[in-house]
Amino acid sequence: MDYDNSKYIIRINITDLCILAILVLFYRILLELSYVYLISPGYTYMGLIMENTYGMYVISWILSFLPIFSIANLCGEVNFCSTTLYLLYLICYIPSTVLFGYIRATFVPWFLLYFFFLFFYNRLFNTINAPSCFKLNKKGLNILMVFLVLVIIFIWGYYSHFRVNFSLYDVYARREEASSYQMPTLVSYLFSGIKMILPTLTVWALSNKNKIFAFVYAGTLMVTFFIDGSKSVVVSLLAALIAYAIIRRNKAVIKYMIVALSILLIFGLIEYIVTKSMVIDGLIIRRAFFLPQRLNYYYYEFVSQNGPDYFRQGLIRHFGFKSRYGMRITNIIGEIYFGSANNSANNGLFSDAYYNLGYPGFFIMPALIIGFLKVLDSFSSGQREEVRIASIIAISISLISSSFFTILLTHGGIFLAIIYLLLPRDIPESENQ
């Protein structure tokens, strides 16, 4: 792509645009095959159904390609914010259009408006200049590693008694147990923040040819899985390592993340054809691609009938504001739509905006998200793309599944920004533009 002097005027290479359109077409077909033949038949009880939506099916295909020019622009920009938006388009927006073709939705215009403002604010907001005076030296990095490891070992021993469990099938029981640990607020924030930054630190160590640090960070991240059974840490680490191995050989591969996800979908289909099992589709495709989008339906229906919460279960509860609801909305959604209040139906992006702010949330929350991503843009300036991709994957997963302010405070978003501020630059800032 060739950029004019103005950041708002972009000339798109027609060949690149056509290639992207073909890739999106192929990706959408694979998503639909997975949904129709694997996900929906196996998980109808979770609301992943197939209705006759007639004309909406055709419209859903048009919607898949509606932001194609904006996506083409993002593919030509190598920075934290644009790459995150591109990934959200792939794992949130397009799967949503698949569901629109099979499950009636009354909120489609609002969903489109939400994503329009994400793309709009990305063009509107500038990246700030980050100070470079906080970068750690070698001794400081060693101290940081020891501190992070000791915190996790303490939590592992004190709360879960050094339990080792690699199983992916009893994670909900472990998660429920972890919710009863009653960690002090500071310890809880540290635990969540460390989980967020460890994939990034792992690939950063690999990028700097420090295999010992990389092994320690990866091992520490697996210990966090033993503690609370969070599958996202395993997915984030594996995705970060695979992306690192590919991107360090070819920087342009970032725009072809759609190819990598298409290959994942193909493997899922092959797995079912050959073995009749659905490990890939059951654990990854369903959970990361389709279930959060189905939750958008449930959140929209519930909030439309009962009204938004205005962060009274979140940020402003610390200032004496009480929610109108007797339990957390995530648990209410779990009770109404999944039959048990123990099912915490966390969701982010569109659902987060609507249940916290109502309709104004569709233009307010995208501004906050893009603002935070621009800060990460600035603080991660000078880091190689194979390092930043780990954080991009982690942040994207968090944005899809969690409330924005929960990501900042509880899930370690602010902690991640601080770590980027402290990490020495791998490449000169002038080469990172």
Q: Any overview of this molecule?
A:
The chain is mainly alpha-helical and 433 residues long. It contains 18 helices and two strands. Strands 1-2 form a two-stranded antiparallel ribbon. Strand 1 (2-3) and strand 2 (10-11) form a beta hairpin. The radius of gyration is 21 Å and the shape is globular. It starts with a strand and ends in an 11-residue tail after the last helix. Residues 1-6 and 428-433 have low confidence and may be disordered.
- Ends: how far apart? 15 Å
- How many strands, what sense, and barrel or not for the largest sheet? 2 strands, antiparallel
Spatially, the strands of the biggest sheet line up as 1-2
Categorize the overall geometry: globular
Helix count, DSSP H or I runs of 4 or more residues: 18
Order of helices and strands: EEHHHHHHHHHHHHHHHHHH
What's the alpha carbon Rg, rounded to whole Å?
21 Å
- Total strands: the figure is 2
Uncertain residue ranges: 1-6, 428-433
Mean model confidence by pLDDT = 86
> How much of the sequence is in beta strands?
under 5%
Global structural class: mainly alpha
Structure, briefly:
This protein has helices at 14-42, 55-65, 68-75, 80-100, 108-124, 138-160, 171-178, 185-207, 211-228, 231-247, 257-275, 279-306, 329-338, 350-357, 361-379, 385-401, 404-409, 413-422, and strands spanning 2-3, 10-11. The protein has 433 residues and is mainly α.
